[in-house]
Amino acid sequence: MRLLSSCFVKDSSVRLTLTCGLECVKGGREAGGTCSTPLGWRLALVRWREHGIIGYLCMRLAHVPLDDLEFDALMTSNDRLPSSRTACPWCGASERTAWGTCQGCGRYYRPEGWTRVPRRRSWWIVVPLLVVALLYAWLHDPFVPDLVTLFWKRPATLRSSDSPTHQWAMWGRDLAQRRYIAEATQALEGRRVWSVSTGVPTRSAPVLVDNVLYLGGHFACSALDAQTGARLWEVPLSGPVHTALAVAGDALYLGLQDWRVLALERQTGARRWEFSMQNPVAGAAAVAHGMVYIGSMDGFLYALDAATGRLIWQFKTQDQALSPPAFAENTLFMSSTDGSLYALNARTGQRWLRFRTPERLHDTPVVAHGLVYFPAGGQLFAIAADAYEIPGQFQFKQVWAQFWLWGFPVPRPPGQPGGRWRFVPSKTRGKILAAPAVAADALYAGDTQGMLYAREVLTGTELWQFQARGAITASPVVVGSQVYVGTEDGLFYALERDRGTLRWQLDLGAPLQLPPVFASGRLYLRTSDGQVHAVE
């Protein structure tokens, strides 16, 4: 007979089974009744009633033996107990149970021929299994830091491509990708200062640091004097550069179409290190926390040590990662053509959120005012920057939504975590393809029908609209009180930021498919014919 903490064994020809009461079987039932509840479950009910669920669990883990009161409660809970009583061999008192502690003398007694066998302890199995389960949960919980990456894969530097004042060191100027310069500067007049041909055109937007303009070209990377446009140096490469460079410290970081990432000396273009991928580089590089973040057409976002090029971590999406990430402190936001915006731990690459949309995401997200703005399917989305997703939450909502669609009596399932607002241009209008420029009180985005929208940052309320002549497929830039934007028909516009009034426009003669950059009091634009223009 097994009583959780001990066993009573008699001759093998006799089978004794305890349920809620007592049932002896020796060639058939001799006494008692039948109960479908096992003794262990009955003991659990008794202990839950007396000690609560927490108390029962603690007693179960500690293997607390069955005491007399609990045994009596178990036995008396069954109305069909054996009618025979047993006499205590010590004092002769008549006891109602076949074994136990005598109520008269307090000594333990048992029927003759029975022996007490201690129950096997299972802690040596339970404890290791519990440790393994906790370790697995630790390693796979996205909200628990990856200790291996934190302590054994540290970057050797703290470089960042976040632009200082009067510089433009990366794709969106700062790590948040805002394309906004708040410092008041003298209003530009729309005068072209110089124009330089860079050969076969590529989609590498220029960056500017210390009056030097860096840009990628067709199998080359070059540096130009920002004041005159004179070429300072040019280095040949084994592949074309179709993404913007990132400047951090004394190094340039760029990706090639031949599946490699390079780090070059900023002063000479000499090579420092290279990293090979499995597919062509898709997005511009961004440098933060001493790591180079860059996406690939194989769907991976790679985080490399900025000093050595060593791989620190990589994150796989369901499709291509075509744009550089945006950062909000230790959180990284990246878009993918699988229709999702991902929020990752920038240090370890662990996923905190996947916000799903029905369309492909091509351009970079923008982080400002506690929100993340990104275009998807011609619309503009805004979600909370601190949103997160519990593992399995989306799958649970999918089942919930299916039951709701089938007409089951369940409430309407909630939306995705973090959603704030969405702007959908009119059906007669075009699609928003490029990321907005986000200022202190408004954001600015254009569509493929040439409409430039100014909207309030927290609610998405419309402030004003401006109709340009050509399609707007590149992000605008905000400098002081003005917003600048280019179009596919080669016109470049300067507007008053508060009302949308046109100040001037400049015809550059070729489509503007890359966003403008501003540094040292000038705008620098690269047109689709390979020309670079300086405007002031």
From TrEMBL:
Query: What InterPro entries does the entry give?
Result: PQQ_b-propeller_rpt, PQQ_rpt_dom, Quinoprotein_ADH-like_sf, WD40/YVTN_repeat-like_dom_sf
PANTHER family cross-referenced by the UniProt entry: CELL SURFACE PROTEIN, OUTER MEMBRANE PROTEIN ASSEMBLY FACTOR BAMB
Which lineage is the organism of this entry classified under, starting from the top rank?
Bacteria, Pseudomonadati, Nitrospinota/Tectimicrobiota group, Candidatus Tectimicrobiota
Keyword line: Membrane, Transmembrane, Transmembrane helix
Q: Does the keyword Membrane apply?
A: yes
Q: Where is the Pyrrolo-quinoline quinone repeat domain?
A: 260-384, 452-535
Where on the tree of life does the source sit, at the highest rank?
A: Bacteria
Could you list the residue ranges that cross the membrane?
122-139
Name this polypeptide is given: Pyrrolo-quinoline quinone repeat domain-containing protein
Native source organism of the sequence: Tectimicrobiota bacterium
Name the Pfam families on file. Answer: PQQ_2
